[in-house]
Amino acid sequence: MKSITVFCGSSLGSDAQFQSEAQLLGQRLAEEQCTLVYGGAKIGLMGALANGALEANGKVIGIIPTFLKKNEVVHDGLTELIEVESMHERKHQMSELADGFIALPGGFGTLEELFEILTWAQLNRHQKPIGILNTDGYYDELLAFIHKMVDKKFLRPVNLDLMIVSSSIDNLLEQMANYTQPELPRWT
To answer: How far apart are CA 15 and CA 125, in angstroms?
Structure first.
């Protein structure tokens, strides 16, 4: 993959492992000569991710809405910074530039971005791999709830195959490199 969009928190979270894994993912992407595309902030896991890639001489593209840039959260050391007007435009740009997606721990924004990109895959708007780095079991309860959605017939079992989940960066990247989107049934 030439570029991966990463969704993650603008906070560091409660566990130092979240920050170290974000930084390591940035480093690994740089080592693989894979461009990091992310939200453009210098704070939280977003900043750790970008710094990890930059410290390993990687290419980092940040996409940030004007209103966040004005709040002075923008990372000023990126390879490229794209300023957009809205969060919707940000997600569109992030999707267009990506060959795949990874979600790290985060809050509402991270979940919203993850679920939107999963929905687009479900609707066959893209066939790109979607990874979830399940650092320290962060996503365990969410994944259990998604399985409940299948059990209660709000999702088809094949939709689970739209997500690649791993607690290992290398395993996640390997699975994403070998990803083929499942055959999705037509809506009836």
So the answer is: 35
Q: Is 40 helix (H, G, I), strand (E, B) or coil?
A: coil
Q: What is the mean pLDDT of residues 44-49?
A: 97
Question: Which structure tokens are listed for 171?
Answer: 């395993």
In this structure, what token pair is assigned to residue 33? 């000569």
Q: In the chain, what's the furthest Cα-to-Cα distance?
A: 50
* pLDDT per residue as tens digits for the range 131-172: 999 999 999 999 999 999 999 999 999 999 999 999 999 999
> Taking the domains of the chain in order of start, what are their residue ranges?
3-135+163-177
First CA to last CA across the chain, in angstroms? 34
Strands 163-166 and 130-133: parallel
Which DSSP letter does residue 168 get?
-
Cα–Cα dist 38/73, whole Å:
13
C-alpha angle 116/122/125, rounded to 5°? Answer: 75
CATH architecture for segment(s) 3-135+163-177: 3-Layer(aba) Sandwich (3.40)
Beta carbons within 8 Å of 85's beta carbon, 6+ residues apart: 65, 66
The chain-wide mean pLDDT, for the chain, equals 95
